[in-house]
Design brief:
single chain, 178 residues, mainly alpha, globular
Amino acid sequence: MVLPIPNPLIIIFSVLIGGLIGVFLNIEERLDNLSTVIKKKLKLKDSQFNEGLISAFLIFCIGSMTILGAINEGIKGDNSLLITKSVLDGFTSIALSSTFGIGVMFSAIPMLIFQGGLTVLASFLGDFFTESLIQYMACTGGILIVGIGINLLEIKKISVLNLLPSLVIVVILFLLFV
């Protein structure tokens, strides 16, 4: 996903700056605390509820299909990529649910907010999302997916949620330097 990018430094600095912002805002701990509150309110005893919610949210929301599909629907009204993505996510959710439990189901709420927000934003700012900008955003999302893979394989713990601001930072750096 990085190879077709003319300026990979934008991606690298987006992830670095986005990570610093995410750590400063403590996104991962805040979402973990929120999912703990949800778990307590619903009186769930699932020990992996938080991990299931967060892992599923990240897998379903930061990939290039999400970014491209939501923007495509917002600009052109074409939801075919999102429908394809939802079928793939359905099968993925079955596998994730067997490992992480009911938390995977609750990931639909932040996914709806994220994906729906991106679609609405794209419908208002259609001309803003050039093909090149979308490519940079998808590439940044792809790097975050590598982090999720490293977490799922338990190679090393990467706070991928804290890297989410990089999806906004890449837009800013793109506008400044491309």
